[in-house]
Amino acid sequence: MKSIQAVKGMNDLLPDSTVLWQWVENHIRGLFFNYGYEEIRLPIVEKTELFKRSIGEATDIVEKEMYTFLDRNEESLTLRPEGTAGCVRAGIEHGLFYNQVQKLWYQGPMFRYERPQKGRYRQFYQVGVEAFGFQGYLIEAELLLMSARLWDLLGISQKVALHINTLGKPASREQYREAFVNYCEKHHDQLDDDSKRRLKTNPLRILDSKNPDLQKLLNSAPKLTDYLDSEDKKQFDGLCELLKANGIAYEVNPKLVRGLDYYTGTVFEWVTEALGSQGAVCAGGRYDGLVEELGGKATPAIGFAIGVDRIVDLCSEKFTPKTIDGYFIVASPSAQNNVMQFAELLRSEIPELSLVVDCASGSIKSQFKRADKSGAKFALILGEDELSKNMITFKDLRQEGEQKQFKRDELIKHLRST
Asked: Of the candidates 62, 390, 393, 407, which lies 20 to 30 Å from 96 by C-alpha distance?
């Protein structure tokens, strides 16, 4: 019978990989707690209308990439392609934004139908941060400073760079959109097919094109910064000054527009050249109109999403997995029950101790091979000889030395001191 394979682009994470993922996730969890962000856990499946209204029907995600299906009640549901829309929906539904501010974060799988390649999968993992109810650039700076601190903790600061831009208020952006469309229409014959399509649906996404010939054409296009009002410029300048004061290097990228319709004001990306074509590892910005668009009261909001798959790839060279402390070898069948009982006693007496009991039995030689493969620092051995003496044998697996036998209480003291 033919075996069943995983869905293309939806990958298994095996134990030798998950230890690195856990290390990254633990750093993220601890940092967000220290900054006062609280975790919210959201459904993987949402009503399709949520994403059409928030992300925008003319975006690539909604047009081509969503996993959408009808349930038994003929209701259209979608596997979440991103997390912000669901977080806003939950905040409105549970009254989290009413006369209060919120700092939230979430994590989990997202789903988009794309051509799988390294760093871009159909099931991928994101950590998202969302802050609601905060006006001004201080909260923008906090998110950027917090993300910069995360790169420091993970040891990848030298591999990432910050790009920032401001999209301004909707009225300013609409004026710019009109001027940009006029420019593109004058050069219509120089646009590629994708840009010609976007010109009718989502023209500002043309700025994000990876086509080098098109980028040369865009160098002479109108600049969004020329259409910003004084308040937009003041806010963005304040953010830039605060980043400088905290030693955060950045590049103002006027072509950075982000791919989702809900963004307003400041947008940003942390990018890398270490992962080939998949350069963005963290991206976000302001979306002050989204809460109202989805039925809530007008609420200023900003957030970002971290691509965990990509961050894990960047951290792989820096990470040294933690090894277990001890490996308990069962040297005779008659010792099996005693081994399990004493292992539980050790776990109670020394809670920080990591200890594996060999439950596979087999010869002493095979058990020692498994102990060595596990990376354990020492082995504990219990067999007929130890049972007759009421002792436990201790053997250091990482340094040359003789085996030592201890009484149970003596072994507990020895393990506490090592």
From this structure: 62
